[in-house]
Amino acid sequence: MTKRKKYRKVRGGCLTCKERKVRCGLEKPECENCTRLDRPCAYAEAPVRPSAMQEVELMHHYTAYTCLSMSENPVLRSLWREIVPKHAFRHPFLLQGLFACAALHKVHGDHDMEPAALARLIHAADFYQQNSLKTYIDLLSDVTEENCHALFAFSQIIAGLSFARLSSNIHEHTGGPIASIDSFLSLSELMKGTLNVAIEGIEWLREGDLRSMLGDAPSIPSQQELAGSSTPCARAMKTLSHQIAGQIQDDEASRARVEVLQSTLRLVYGLFLEPPESKERLNNIGGFLVFADLDFIRLLKEWDHAALVILAYYGAALHRLRHIWYYGDVGAKIVKAVKDIDMQAYFTHLSWPQQQVGI
């Protein structure tokens, strides 16, 4: 069988050539491929960059308001206000990330905004996030001493932006609980970039001016610690743990599954032990997708029911950060999405997370 000739992708090709997966010649107003085959030819409209004046307004909003909302820790607030902008002025992708963050912050903060102004801000957030994300992803494979601080700061920003979009009604889909959970899981690959930057540039980051942003992975309570607690949270999670333990079979795959589920359940339990004044609370709860075992993420993507129930408990933990604008009601949405999935065997285990988010 003759193999189809490979083609080298080009940016900005016409929509027809993209659909046919052939190389576009980029001729205007119609490319040669479409002209020769008598096919309709059209190019996607290039997104319009927001005005310079709007960028000035967004930068002012960021330095006056948004930077103060990025963390509950005064030291980190100072970094977001004074140090991160310095790196942004040297790395345009980070500067565009700040613009996107400021735009979404304004959207979240003003519920009486005129429709036209709202549309401009949403367009700005979309434009800057998409542009900056392309550069960020390209640079993840080339972390250097010169760019690691900008990459690390941007990794925090893109996580916040992604949560903010989930918590708001911007570009909201109507795919039901499965789509809601898929949207949340799509953050896992994005947030793993944070871990990649930290690993590749750890020595440079430790010696740099953003070193205070570095945090340790949360500790995982032992099974004995969970068993010895009598709080309502612990009692609910112990009951779930017992049911999961009863599912173990003789094969290695079954034992590995139960081990991952039990370990992740204890990781989530540890998030509820974080006192409100803890400096690591925001990092540990918000960074769950960074710290979670990849096998647990795989189980979620396979719609493992026990894993989904554990995700609902995480949603209850995330709900404790709902006062932070970019988290909002994401935790409650996670719990509701899991509740709406038909899982009769785990129905009673969802009572406690639902109570915590008011469902």
UniProtKB/TrEMBL annotation:
GO terms for molecular function: DNA-binding transcription activator activity, RNA polymerase II-specific; zinc ion binding. PROSITE patterns: ZN2_CY6_FUNGAL_1 (PS00463), ZN2_CY6_FUNGAL_2 (PS50048). The keyword Nucleus applies. The keyword Transcription regulation does not apply. InterPro entries: Sterol_Uptake_Regulator, Zn2-C6_fun-type_DNA-bd_sf, Zn2Cys6_DnaBD. Residues 13-43 form the Zn(2)-C6 fungal-type domain. CDD domains: GAL4. Keywords: Nucleus. SMART domains: GAL4 (SM00066). This is Zn(2)-C6 fungal-type domain-containing protein.
